[in-house]
């Protein structure tokens, strides 16, 4: 499994190991599967509390850079008024992270496996963070 394949799968919300569309439960926007039903890769890490805090940080950062900063710059340049900017920023700070939730989870898994591709079962790993200590 190459890093390029991992990135392509991460950007398309697919399992980083086998490429199946199994990250999220069918019919759900926000429920992550515990593991890939095709290859068995564990997505949820029960022993690594806070693993997906990185995805929340990633989501927050993208929201600020891509959405909130441009709105504030438009207000600063007086293209839009301050009150509309506050309303747009307030609504956007709720809506944009919700829209990016699935992608940020996938991007976080992608980042993890790009830097530690040996943890993927396709590359001989166990698929669990912290299980491959012989880096």
Number of individual domains: 1
Total count of helical runs of at least 4 residues: 3
Number of E strands? 0
Give the SSE order as H and E letters.
HHH
| Relative strand content | under 5%
| Separation of the first and last Cα atoms | 17 Å
In words, what does this structure look like?
- The protein is mainly α and 135 residues long.
- It has one domain.
- 50% of the residues lie in helices and 0% in strands.
- It has helices at residues 3-11, 53-76, 82-115.
- It is elongated and about 55 Å long.
Topology:
Layout: H1 3-11, H2 53-76, H3 82-115
Helix pairs in contact: 1-3, 2-3
Keywords:
single chain, disordered C terminus, 135 residues
Short description:
This protein has about 140 residues and is mainly alpha-helical.
């Amino acid at each position: 499994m190459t890093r390029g394949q991992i990135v392509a799968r991460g950007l398309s919300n697919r399992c980083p190991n086998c490429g199946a569309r199994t990250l999220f439960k069918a019919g759900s926007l926000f429920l992550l599967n515990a593991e890939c039903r095709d290859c068995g890769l564990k997505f949820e890490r029960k022993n690594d509390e806070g693993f997906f805090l990185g995805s929340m940080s990633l989501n927050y950062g993208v929201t600020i850079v891509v959405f909130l900063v441009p709105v504030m710059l438009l207000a600063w340049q007086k293209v839009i008024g301050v009150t509309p900017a506050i309303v747009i920023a307030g609504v956007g700070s709720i809506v944009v992270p919700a829209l990016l939730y699935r992608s940020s989870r996938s991007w976080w898994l992608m980042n993890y496996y790009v830097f530690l591709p040996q943890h993927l079962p396709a590359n001989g790993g166990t698929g669990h963070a912290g299980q491959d200590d012989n880096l």
